[in-house]
Amino acid sequence: MTDFQSLGLSDGLLSAVADNGYDAPTPIQQKAIPLILAGRDLMGLAQTGTGKTAAFGLPLIDRLLAENEKAGPKGTRALILAPTRELVNQIAKNLISFLKHTPLRVASVVGGVSINGQIKRLGKGTDILVATPGRLLDLVDRRAVDLGSASYLVLDEADQMLDLGFIHALRRIAGLVSDDRQTLLFSATMPKQINELARSYLTDPERVEVSPAGKTADKITQSVHFMDRTKKSDFLVEQLQAKPDGISLVFCRTKHGAERLMRKLSQSGIAAGSIHGNKSQNQRDRAIRDLREGRINVLVATDVAARGIDIPGVSHVYNFELPEVAEAYVHRIGRTARAGAEGDAIALCAPEEIGLFRQIEKLIGIEIDVAGGEIPPMSAAAGRAKRGGGNRGGKPGGKKPFHKQSSSGDNDNKSQARRPRRRRQGGRRDAA
Ligand code: AMP
User: Fold this and answer.
1) Is the pLDDT higher at 394 or at 298?
2) Ligand 1 contacts CB of residue 84 (under 6 A)
3) Cβ(53) – ligand 1 distance below 6 Å
4) How many domains does the chain have?
């Protein structure tokens, strides 16, 4: 078995690794750490929960220590970009845990909090700056930060940054960082645009892949229950009540849907919280802390709010509504079974979601076990497909879809039903 000692990290870093309780490097760490220490640009294709942060953080810190330089006023020696505030805070926290016995400093900047404190903090310069692209550019425009001396650039969850419309921000930021830099790009999926981004910003990169794009972690047991959408919330209440010791994440598509579902769960006596774009940063942080510290055991979330956050011990991920984009399913269920643990991913699929369900199965390359209900015919999704929804050629007509057969007694999804199928989030900063 490869151990951390054989990867070339300095002794100081090895003791930080031991302090963190890491016994052996994860596969992405085994592959990426020696390459980054050797100064190579890297394109890492890795799912969430694979130990990515330490994979780039440890060698980056080692290189900064070896250089023994100091950042000038407003300067930073390394810049890490991530799509969401939660992910930025989590990366910074992880890095700080490795820096305990070193003189290096980390600063983080995110939107949604006062900019003045950040301006003051950056004035002294920092060794590592972790930022969301939007807030970073606000700070650049106010001349509060100088990126010209940064000789390391890390783009984390690059696919999500593109989904959020950060492409122009990334191009601008990359132009401000020193040309003579080491660039590391991590992404859970590798769509064409990411390859293009890598070609423009990486020099002769090494490609490191820990599991094929779109493949879900082996340790996650996946199942699906087919049911009418009006039955979903009662079903979820039963499931959650049957597992009082579990820690569950429940994914909804919309902020309002997530909030309504959280209230319904709370009314049913389940200790639940929610995170989505309508919550302030403090409220989001508190909800995540409540889950980590056991004050709640269910968190209802939208995709962007939950992306990248690391909550140890999530035992169940519920796809209360299937995501519009199949890749998001992989990100969602990657919230469980992290760092070697096991987990359950349970999808609730209504007849009108069958096209989305088939796309997910196609992406992950496996048939998900049917744990309840009957697989609706693809024709159930035909009405949706005609309005622009995706299915794989379901024939119109045939059996009447069951969402038309029953009256809608539960309004969890009403706003969803009226929503156009594909909501682009492009252009929004730190959205949803
Ligand atoms: P990440 O993919 O960076 O978000 O990491 C996911 C989780 O795995 C975090 O809680 C890390 O602290 C943890 N982790 C990272 N590397 C290791 C390791 N080598 N051994 C045990 N846990 C780790």
Assistant:
1) 298
2) no
3) yes
4) 2
